[in-house]
Design brief:
The structure is a single chain. This protein has 11 helices and 9 strands. α6 packs antiparallel against α7. With 254 residues, it is an alpha/beta fold. It has a 7-stranded mixed sheet with strand order 3-2-1-4-5-9-8. The two termini are 33 Å apart. It has helices at 3-10, 23-39, 55-62, 74-82, 123-135, 150-160, 165-174, 187-192, 213-217, 221-234, 238-241, and strands at 45-48, 66-71, 91-94, 108-113, 137-148, 176-177, 180-181, 197-204, 246-253.
């Protein structure tokens, strides 16, 4: 395991609950489950192979899906196992997205890869991740993966006022920012074009969260609901995707 990645999540960052810390944080979660609830077939057998603290896994289990949750880090596996409703999941294990050999070919209706591509700098590893995901997915099944937009990541980092400009320039040049890799606009579609997947949607899950951070986090409940209606109506537009640090790509295996 990459020591820097382990340090980031186990010592420097708390993933569990991240998606509910503020209005701004919740946009990614609310957008993602909006699409999951709309697209995923009822009672699907789902592999969530980058489950983190289980936000999506438990949401989907509560929607009646049969969810097997995995994560690279034992910390996240232990968090999920310790939750009161852990028995709602059909399995919780540590697993590497590059090696899903423990699962039979075509054994899931849906495969979710909600974090691995954030950290794979090597293009051959990104392809291997998708290859393994599609191997365990049935024909006609849904594949969804999260990714980082390079331009959106630059905007997010610049807004924090803690990154030197030469560091930000390097992020735009290489896509690398610490343990994260950001893709250029169009790089996602070029990657999946190599595989038997038909695109359903490409989404900017954060949208304009960072340019509008103060306004969003200071909004009233009614204002935030109105903003979410705007966001969900526009989050598939290329202009919004390009400004969104986080993206979600959904497709169907054929």
């Amino acid at each position: 395991m990459n020591d820097d990645l382990k340090l980031h999540y186990e010592e420097n960052y708390e993933e569990d609950g991240r998606l509910r810390r503020s209005y701004g944080h919740s946009i990614e979660f609310l957008t993602t489950i909006h699409y999951f609830d709309k697209i995923l077939p009822p009672s699907s057998r789902i592999l969530d192979m980058c489950a983190g603290g289980g936000e999506y896994a438990f949401h989907l289990a509560n929607r009646g899906h049969k969810v097997f949750a995995c994560d690279l880090l034992e910390k996240h596996v232990n968090i999920m196992r310790a939750k009161l409703d852990a028995n709602k999941l059909i399995g919780i294990e540590a697993a590497n997205a590059l090696d899903l050999s423990r699962f039979d070919t075509g054994s899931f209706d849906v495969v979710l890869c909600m974090g691995a591509l954030y950290h794979l700098f090597d293009p051959t590893e990104r392809e291997k991740c998708i290859t393994e995901s599609l191997r365990v997915l049935k024909n006609g099944g849904i594949f969804a993966f999260a990714y980082i937009n390079r331009n959106g990541a630059y905007i997010a980092d610049f807004s924090r006022e803690t990154y030197p400009m030469d560091t930000l320039a390097e992020v735009m040049k290489t896509g690398k920012s610490g343990v994260f890799y950001g893709m250029n606009f169009g790089e996602v579609d070029a990657l999946v074009a190599k595989f038997p997947i038909e695109k359903i949607a490409n989404i900017g899950t954060n949208g304009l969260r960072y340019p509008l951070a103060y306004r969003i986090d200071s909004a009233t409940n009614d204002e935030f609901e109105a903003y979410m209606q705007y966001h969900l109506a526009t989050c598939e537009e290329p202009s919004i995707i390009g400004h969104s640090p986080n993206g979600l790509w959904l497709g169907k295996k054929y």
